[in-house]
Fold this sequence. Notes:
It is a single chain. The chain is an alpha/beta fold. 41% of the residues lie in helices and 22% in strands. The chain is elongated and about 75 Å long. The strands form 3 sheets. Strands 1, 2, 3, 4, 9, 10 and 11 form a 7-stranded mixed sheet that branches. Strands 5-6 form a two-stranded antiparallel sheet. Helix 1 (12-24) crosses helix 3 and helix 6 (115-126) packs across helix 11 (297-310). The protein has 11 helices and 11 strands. It has 3 domains: 7-85, Arc Repressor Mutant, subunit A; 92-174 and 285-310, D-Maltodextrin-Binding Protein, domain 2, CATH 3.40.190; 177-284, 3-Layer(aba) Sandwich (D-Maltodextrin-Binding Protein, domain 2), CATH 3.40.190.10.
Amino acid sequence: MDALPKDLDLDLTLLRDLLALGQAGNLSQAARHRGITHPAFGRRIRALEDWAGAALVERGSRRSPLTDEGRKLAAAARQIEAILRNTRAVLAHTPEQALQTITIAAGRTLSHTLLPQLVADIRDACGDLLWKVKTTSLRPGLEMLRERWADFMLGHAPEGAIPPGMEDLLSCSVGRDALVAVSAPLVSGYPKYAVPQNLSQPMVPYLAYAPGMALGSILDNALQQQACRDRLFTIYEADLADSIHAMVRQGVGLAWLPLSLIREDLLQGRIVRAGAKAEDIDIDVRLYTRQAALEDARTRGVWEAVIGLYG
Length: 311
């Protein structure tokens, strides 16, 4: 059997040190996380640099702890970990039991718009995981994080949505969306219901999000200072954007819906814009976890991949 070349001899512990440094942001915190002294950690990083033949750490930099070469090696380290985990799962002959499980709470709309791409991206970086998705709204999802019923929460991010007692909450922006005012068409390209521009215009039937929905909070904050809010009368309320979407297509009223949900309908003319494109309401989509959750290697690996992809 052929042996590995000597120049490929490497202690995997050193790769985990590099990943810890990329996550922690500085040598001192990374050393504490790895349970060794700062000088010992520094020696291990220098040993890894000797092996790589390149500087892996930006010493004295406040921007990033890793050089470009360090980030490339960290990405390779994540792939190596994923390959080893997957191989172990195959050898165990019980794939579902052997796969590491990640539980993610996600908004109902996001679970079929942004979440599939997010999971695909993470799979490329981390390999196979058993993903368990629990659809919910933002506040119950954050409560699931608090009680450790979920490892991550994917949600829209309205201001002031984070409840007290979650000071260790971490988040990373993983996408952008927009709330777009839409209506069924009256004639080609023209809305049956348009966003009122002043108080002299007629009242318009409005399809609203149920209280407690993140999309509803974002929309209410954006409409608070606009005259159109006083010209909208609510005729339908739902805690599911898909339900409101269906009512828009029926020509029942005006609504603000996520662009990711309605893009195809807009292109096909099944629904049309009811206001100017410049008035779209930008939405930040964030992935949340807690600092305490990163003590688990499987959660930490996913979070490091997310930061590498989106951070």
